[in-house]
Write a structure and sequence with these properties.
Layout lengths: L1 H27 L2 H12 E6 L6 E2 L5 E13 L6 H4 L2 H8 L3 H8 L6 E7 L1 H9 L5 E10 L7 H4 L11 H5 L1 H4 L4 E7 L5 E4 L10 E4 L3 H18 L3 E8 L4 E8 L12 H4 L2 H4 L9 H10 L8 E3 L4 E4 L2 E4 L6 E3 H7 L2 H11 L1 H10 L26 H8 L8 H12 L3 E3 L4 E5 L5 E4 L4 E4 L3 H14 L17 E10 L5 E14 L6 E8 L7 H20 L18 E3 L2 E3 L33 H11 L2 E6 L2 E10 L2 E9 L7
Parallel strand pairs: 2-8, 24-26
Antiparallel strand pairs: 1-6, 2-3, 3-4, 3-5, 6-7, 8-16, 9-10, 9-21, 11-14, 12-13, 15-18, 16-17, 19-20, 20-21, 22-23, 25-26
Length: about 650
Amino acid sequence: MERRLLMAGGILGVGLCLVLGRLVHVATVQNLHLAQQASDQHQKNLTLQVRRGAIVDHRGYPLALSVPAESLFVHPKKLTEKVRQQATALAAALHLPLAEVQRVLRSQEPFLWLKRRATLQEAGQVRALSLSGIESMETERRFYPQGTLAAPVIGFVNVDARGLAGIEQAYDEHLGEEPTEVIGEKDGKGRTIFVHEGAVPLEPLTVRLTLDVGLQYLAEQELGQAVKATGANGGVVVILDPQTFAVRVFAQVPTFNPNTPAAVRPNVRRNRIISDPYEPGSTLKTLLVAAALDAKRVRPEEKIFCEHGKYPVGKSIIHDHHPYGSLSLTEVLQHSSNIGMAKVGERLGKEAYSAYLRAFGLGRTTGLGLPGESAGLLPPPDAWSPINLVTASFGQGFSTTPLQLACAYAALANDGVLMRPYIVQEVLNADGKVVEAYGPQRLWQAVRSETAHQVLTMMEKVVAREGTGWRAQIDGFRVAGKTGTSQKPDPRGGYSPHARIASFVGIVPADRPRLVVLVAIDEPKTAVYGGEVAAPVFKAIAQQALSYLGVTGGPLKGEGTSPETLPSVKDGELVRPQFQQIAKTSTGAVDDARVDPLVDGANFLGMSLREAVLSAQRNDWQITTRGSGYVMKQTLVQQAGKPVYHLTLASTYEARP
């Protein structure tokens, strides 16, 4: 018995030693390996794509949003022939070329995207085909609810939601964070139960611009009509607030839809207002007059002999459109005499003239902060020959961007002070608190205040009946401006005999400036002079803009305007141009009040259905809804004497009427 007990005890002792040895081995040698196995069974890594922030105008109207989408993918090697035979139906559902879909389905790759960031409608149509092997994951896509409005300024994103142009590119770090890796707990079937607290990425930021949707809309409408009517290649409009140099409008034609940027050539997507310098022509004469007056080289009433239309300079002869004799400096500007300006330039000298042009901001970027801005071309004065000085006196031989020239005129309207233009007003967090703010930034005094006031008074003569810009007159308001007709350089050398840019830059009201408006039309066919082509466009835009902003100064009669297109002020509120279809009552009849639903304080655009319902409940608004996703359109009607908002929700872009 004793031997048996000793044997049993020995066996148990050896067993315990083996167990203890195994425990020590597991706790020390295999510790990390087993911990990783446990983690793999209970946890999994998740990639969270942070929702990209919104871009809004200075009143909060959405210009760029992120809406729900799905990315569809396949494992081509696992697909059946039945699925491959449905390539035509898949291509139609996803709006893709058939050849591209066939390539993906017949590939030998282990994994391929079928379509990234497809709309919910497209994904739903694919699911309706009941094809096994096509999978999807939730994501978001960029949506531009205003369509083409201010598209070159806003820019667009690539398939990975990274900015490629405009504000989207310049403020990419603010609008979109990099995808964040987080850890989530999963159940026995591999489904995510929850994400660890503190692992969720930051909420997106919102970029608020200085642009005004209403002004942008009317500028694009008038510019588009002018380009079409004159058979021009295109055109641009810039509107600045001369008190702050805030950019209110950047309009250009042709433009594009940022929802489908690949549909146009890259040169159409380029922001030509900041990237395409041109020879300003006679619009530069105003800056020469300001420089000569500020340097006290000439007086406004001083007579200048204009040689009756022909002025030899070396081997060249300078011409005027009309043979003038002696004109005062004011009359030289009023009639846009090249010869008179050439003599003023000679009197000022190339060093002083070049220095003043640089003081007005020419020859350097404005610092606006958007990608692709050009500094223009302003050669150093030691590179100017006598003929270069003369031609520079009427805007030839160097180039400037539309924004640079608009800023120079804004300096004249701002007591001679040049400021840095800005287009981003502030960056807001998810709670609406300001994270970053931008505002007026004084650069320097370009000319003395009294000089700027003198020049504005002289510019009013340009818009008088005898001046070249008389078509820019606005009833009840004093307008200061300057016309320009510049030849375009010929790629083969010299200047094109036919290609011209017709332009007008105006300041209104001249006695208390609120707007600086630049209009430039590229190669108009019906007429070529700025006074004939660009000045009427300035009038149409400025007249409506003054009414829109509530600026008083006299009756605004208007030509060819109507309540549908002319913004106005009602009960102290700004009434914008119509962006939506004319509202209809429940019976289908057109409502008498053509109401812009954005004016009454209820702005549901970009909201989810839940957000729209909560907003309506908080403010006691009545709403009806149709569709799902995000609010892409809203109309306001009167039913039983009460306002009702009809909201259309969708995840695909619907073009504005």
